[in-house]
Design goal:
Helix content is 60%, strand content 0%. With 259 residues, the chain is mainly alpha-helical. It has two domains: 33-80 and 107-137, no CATH class; 142-259, no CATH class. It is elongated, with a radius of gyration of 20 Å. This is Steroid 5-alpha reductase C-terminal domain-containing protein. Residues 1-26 are annotated as: Disordered.
């Protein structure tokens, strides 16, 4: 799943039990360097927007519809419409931002298998958006694209800024053993998840096809049922009273004033 970078580190196995008094969950972090995992991640992410462009311009999407016995509502003319430019642009921006994440923000190990897992899933999700957009006859930019673009850009900014704030907070020695409670992390306990969901929902809205919301809907369920509860258990075991203080001052998990 594309949320793999936010999962617990592989050396942590105490989500369901209390550690020994002298034991503390540890996160494996290494200096940023170009590893085989990161290199493969960058190549696969760079290929994503190119694939979306070819699906539109080479008629590959229409061929998929024909194989399924369907007809695309959008004609194939060998070039991008205004709506399709927005979709390809969103895929390009998402890929660039995630490459930046892998090279600068992420300081945890990223194996070639994990890199392929994340990048291939994103490629499937983005290609799904591209194909579903062909079911709409819309050719020019409309309210779905304007609204979706705004949500995409705001969500992208929230996710990246919150990740940077966390990285810079942890880089300061005086913050060892402390919970990051500043910036976007003061508004909710998982702003990176919130930003991820917002830009994914915006990307889906650009297609003008409600079926495209399968992706943000799936991640919302995963975050609510699995990722957030497990991660908060990890934080509780690691920070103890510091985490309790943070939860008291920041009561919202994902959406400020709602949940």
């Amino acid at each position: 799943m594309p949320v793999k970078p936010y999962d617990l580190p592989p050396d942590f196995a105490g989500a369901g039990k209390a550690p020994h008094k002298s034991e503390a969950p540890k996160v494996v972090r290494r200096p940023n360097r170009l590893t085989s995992g990161k290199a493969s991640f960058i190549v696969l992410k760079a290929a994503n927007p190119l694939l979306q462009y070819l699906i539109f311009t080479k008629g590959w999407g229409h061929s998929v519809y024909a194989l399924l016995g369907l007809s695309a509502a959008t004609p194939h003319i060998g070039m991008l419409s205004s709506k399709q430019k927005v979709l390809v642009g969103a895929a390009l921006l998402a890929a660039a931002r995630q490459i930046f994440w892998s090279l600068y923000i992420n300081d945890s190990p990223l194996s070639p298998i994990d890199a392929a897992h994340i990048a291939v899933y994103d490629l499937v999700a983005d290609s799904s958006n591209t194909l579903l957009s062909l079911a709409s006859s819309g050719w020019s930019l409309g309210p779905y694209q304007w609204f979706g673009s705004a949500a995409f850009l705001i969500g992208s900014a929230i996710e990246t800024i919150s990740e940077l704030q966390r990285k810079w907070f942890k880089a300061k020695i005086q913050n060892n053993g402390r919970v990051n409670d500043g910036g976007l992390w003061r508004q909710c306990r998982h702003p990176n998840y919130a930003g991820f969901l917002l830009w994914r929902a915006g990307f889906a809205a650009m297609t003008e096809n409600m079926w495209a919301f399968w992706n943000p809907g799936l991640h919302l369920c995963q975050f609510a049922v699995s990722s957030i509860p497990v991660l908060e258990r990890f934080q509780q075991l690691k920070y103890n009273e510091e985490w309790a203080r943070y939860k008291s001052g920041t009561p919202y998990r994902l959406i400020p004033f709602i949940w």
